[in-house]
User: What shape does this take?
Amino acid sequence: MGTWREWTEADAARWVAAPDGEDDKYRRGVLGVMTGSIEYPGAAVLGVEAAHRTGVGMVRYSGPRSVRSVVLARRPETVTMPGRVQAWLLGSGIDAGHRPFILSGDLQHALASGVPVVLDAGGLDLVGTHTAPTVITPHARELTGLLLSRDIECTLEEVEADPAAWAERAAAELQVAVLLKGAVTHVCDPDGARFTVTASTHWLASAGTGDVLGGILGALVATHHDRFEAEPWAITRLAATAAWVHSEAARIASEAWEGGPVLALDVADHVPVVIGRLLRG
Ligand SMILES: NC(=O)C1=CN([C@@H]2O[C@H](COP(=O)(O)OP(=O)(O)OC[C@H]3O[C@@H](n4cnc5c(N)ncnc54)[C@H](OP(=O)(O)O)[C@@H]3O)[C@@H](O)[C@H]2O)[C@@H](O)CC1
Ligand SMILES: Nc1ncnc2c1ncn2[C@@H]1O[C@H](COP(=O)(O)OP(=O)(O)O)[C@@H](O)[C@H]1O
Assistant: This one.
């Protein structure tokens, strides 16, 4: 078992970036997003919204026509034309068991494209086919299912009882960075990095907040794309930073409601404040 360290505000501040005078939207980084489905259109809206709010040069969204419409209704800044991207967010709001054949091909194509990937929910089964730094973002039930599908015996109760050990095991067996969601989020990689992020508020336990986390992380990965060649392990730090930003945005959102409940979109709405404070130092 490795040693786990709580990721701090100072750590997170090293992994956010603002554009400068040399930048344009493409140099900042484009995030390709394949999320959502007829069954779960909201997951696409939430992830795309969160990516925009985190700060990214462009979000290219690809999904069913009706889902594209709701994404564009919420965020007309989103581009739905295919094109080059610097990172992918794949799988939120997709049911791997009912994935259309063409979508499976598109997801595999993205994983083979050589750019970093954030792999969530209905894309998790494709882990192992990645060709660039990749982080998986399961919750405990998803991690259990993934490990069982690779003939690694475990139960949901075991994963929930010792998330640190199972996140480490998954990183080693699957050779991928792992962000295991929960009240304490565990982020680790096969090279020995181990970080925890303790959620600031348990109001985060509501539908769609994980989809928002995916969007935050996707945007951070896209905007740091130029660091991956020299620092392939950057994805683990970016994942911990995304979890920290997510938790802090939820805290501020809840405070705005006198400690009251927070919805997933409220978390996304408060991400710019957190990024701004991190940049100001
Ligand atoms: N707005 C959106 O578009 C949103 C979209 N989302 C997207 O949804 C997709 C599925 O992700 P998920 O994590 O929700 O489901 P998943 O891991 O398959 O676990 C299912 C398990 O839950 C259990 N279960 C169900 N109801 C229960 C109950 N009342 N009380 C207790 N247990 C209950 C159920 O158990 P069962 O009913 O079979 O006994 C089963 O074991 C994913 O793509 C995600 O991105 C979400 O982010 C939400 C917002
Ligand atoms: N009890 C809890 N306290 C604080 N945060 C939690 C708790 N349970 C879950 N979370 C966080 O809420 C988010 C839920 O994500 P996820 O399980 O993917 O939900 P969804 O699929 O509905 O988006 C994760 O960021 C997770 O770390």
Q: What stands out?
A: The longest helix spans residues 234-256. Strands lie at 5-6, 30-34, 58-62, 87-90, 117-119, 134-136, 177-180, 184-188, 194-198.
